[in-house]
Specification:
This protein is of the alpha/beta class and 315 residues long. It is 23% helix and 25% strand. The strands form three sheets. Strands 3, 4, 5, 6, 7, 14 and 15 form a seven-stranded mixed beta sheet that branches. A six-stranded parallel beta sheet has the order 10-9-8-11-12-13, sandwiched between helices. Strands 1-2 form a two-stranded antiparallel ribbon. Helix 3 crosses helix 4 (156-168). It is globular and about 60 Å long. The mean pLDDT is 96.
């Protein structure tokens, strides 16, 4: 089969397809014929930096998510030809991931899919929509009556969160730090140019999805109505930790701070997401679609940061 195989730091322009053996099935694992996969910032980090760490299996096929058909069900209970999605759980780091024609995946991170969507659109769903869904409903306990602030909304995760929240009935305010991207937020109730300081200008925000991360988190906390919740999910601001963070001083009285990590998807939640998309007749927010033979160009597009929406590769 054809696959992207990484052994060390690899720039996007150096990504190539190699011929490797189709993985041999073993108990507890499912062989999936990959039909499409979404691309993620974490895969860029793997190629350019993280692959040097000892905890990364090398050589490794990257890719933390995919959709496809079961090629060999092993002892999983799946049926050959069944439509499935897979994400996280060590994909593309602890074991080979989805940048390949076939992927051998642990059964506990493979989920059945029932959806009207074509493969390319399905490829945009697993990681992005699971993270958005978990942030909104597990992290923020979102209600249709909420006024939701999405900070750093012009990214694939932000677009998915906007789509879900609006379909759920929420009032949504979304921010971007680039004026030229404000038109991309046309579907929200209020689009705001983020100068780095929103506090003092907002009132009544009940829930906030923080995608910029620690760079703006303290300011976001100051924007909240008493009883409000902030979920920190993203790190788009390039600041990864808060040194000297004092929760007593920095979290306003009666405001709650939580986070969401997407490493533990469940069959129940993935089923809810696909059912919601079908019920609301929603189509995933896609920025670009590439054929697998053009994976080099897809990686270059990912690294450029110029694609507005999810990048999907069809296999």
């Amino acid at each position: 089969m054809k696959a992207v195989v990484l052994s060390g730091i690899t720039r996007a322009g150096d990504v190539t397809l190699s011929e490797v053996a189709v993985p041999e099935v073993r108990p507890g694992w499912v062989l999936v014929k990959v039909k499409a996969f979404g691309m993620n910032h974490s895969e860029q980090i793997l190629r350019l930096h993280e692959i040097e760490n000892d905890y990364i299996q090398k050589p490794v096929i990257p890719g933390i998510e995919c959709v496809g058909e079961v090629a060999d069900a092993s002892d999983s209970g799946f049926k050959v030809g069944q439509k499935v999605a897979a994400l996280m759980g060590g994909m593309g780091r602890s074991f080979n991931g989805s940048y390949a024609e076939y992927a051998l995946l642990p059964v506990h991170h493979v989920f059945p899919v029932e959806s009207r969507l074509p493969w390319a659109m399905l490829g945009a769903v697993p990681e992005t929509y699971f993270t958005a869904w978990g942030s909104l409903f597990e992290g923020l306990n979102l209600k249709s009556s909420d006024w939701l602030l999405i900070r750093g909304a012009t990214c694939a995760l932000g677009y998915a969160a906007i789509q879900i929240a609006k379909a759920y009935g929420c009032r949504v305010m979304a921010t971007t730090h680039r004026a030229e991207k404000l038109p991309l937020l046309a579907g929200v109730d209020e689009a705001v140019l983020d100068t780095g300081k929103l506090s003092g200008n907002l009132a009544g925000v009940t829930k906030a999805l923080e995608l910029v991360g620690p760079r703006t988190l303290l300011d976001t906390l100051q924007c909240m109505k008493k009883g409000g919740i902030v979920c920190n999910t993203g790190i788009l601001g390039g600041v990864y930790t808060l040194n000297g963070f004092d929760p007593i001083k920095f979290i306003p009285n009666g405001v709650y701070l939580t986070g969401f990590h997407s490493n533990w998807p469940t069959r129940e939640v993935m089923g809810e997401i696909f059912a919601f998309l079908d019920r609301k007749m929603l189509e995933p927010c896609m920025g670009a679609v590439y054929d697998f033979k053009d994976i080099r160009e897809a990686c270059m597009a990912l690294d450029s940061g110029k694609i507005n929406g999810k990048i999907v590769v069809t296999v």
